[in-house]
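[Automated response] Your request has been received and processed.

Submitted sequence:
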Amino acid sequence: SRFGTRAAAAGLLSWVSETFPGMLIGRTLGATNLGVFNAAFNLARTPATAIATGGLEMLFASGARADQSATFRLRALKTGLGLVGLVSLPAFATLAAIPETMVIVLYGPKWTAAMPLLPPLALAMPPLMLAGVAGAMLAAMGRPGRDLLSQTMTAVFVTAGVLVAIGHSTLAVTWVILAAMCGRMVLSLAMAMRLAGLGRGDLVRTLTPGLLLALITAPAVNFVDGWLGSLHIHRAIVLAADAAAGVVLLTAGVFLLRGLIPVETRWPIAQALRRVPFGVTARLAPAFERGMPR
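Generated structure:
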């Protein structure tokens, strides 16, 4: 069918956008540079895939159910964007803030060349995930051709940009990837917002909590990382402390900023809190349900 063909073509172009930089680095700059690039790319891409996969499937199902309901489509888009932004923006901003510790602990000191590549690649993940939310909604609303257009323009930009950047450095290629993902996000969101009826003000309100958490969490974890590193503590312990600080700050931030979080994002958070075994977090759920329509 035309729907399936366009959806498959969009998936193929997404694969091209993600694999072409590595292919060209390998052919042009050699195996060593390719290995360094892949190490940094996988460090950023793997958690993004884990976070996004289940959420996008759920969003597609919700959007498909809402095929006849404009209100439900709008709510599904806001929920998807809000949850992905709330998790991905602080998480990947924090990852970008501690590249040295991440690379040394996970890969070892011989992979220090991957350190400068990690920040732009980590920062590229939230735009990629938000574009994925928009693309899933476009497909769910029977408009895979719109997502195909976004993927086509992204693939063209990545191809042209990497061909130019490869003459400078592998680091330049990573910044091209970041720019391409931001461009794809803008295109996909613009089309999904128009079809779902989501205004720019609503988009800003939906993503603001995640942006604020990123501005709080990333500098704080970077401070903890630098302070513990200056004490010559083992890097694995430093990374564990970084992770603990990030989780505490993110959790506390979500609770303290709950008044800024839109209802469409707070509702699934409240449901998740109620489903934690043994009722550990159920008492927090009413705080997120406050102000919701009954």
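Summary generated for your ticket: The CA atoms of residues 166 and 257 lie 42 Å apart. The first helix runs from residue 2 to 29.
If you did not submit this request, please reply to this message.
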